[in-house]
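Sequence dictates fold. Below is an illustrative record:

_____
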Amino acid sequence: MSIIERLVRGADETIPSWRELDTDNRENCVRKDLTRRLKCVCDDLSSVEFEALMLQMTHEQLRGERVTRRLFR
């Protein structure tokens, strides 16, 4: 378990790890998190531009996770 997972999960082992989520659920979690964090920063973007940015950033995050798992497992 990574340091970040330990911080997030704490002592509660009932919370599933992000590695245990299926692809669709992980994608939704990443997209919601990015939207929550960046909505106030990207006020000048139209809704279409913002959605395109979230889609691109979500795919990059998921791609990075796949590469990390492949290299370090």
Summary: Residues 47-72 form the longest helix (26 residues). The chain has a mean pLDDT of 78. The radius of gyration is 14 Å. Residues 17-72 form one domain.
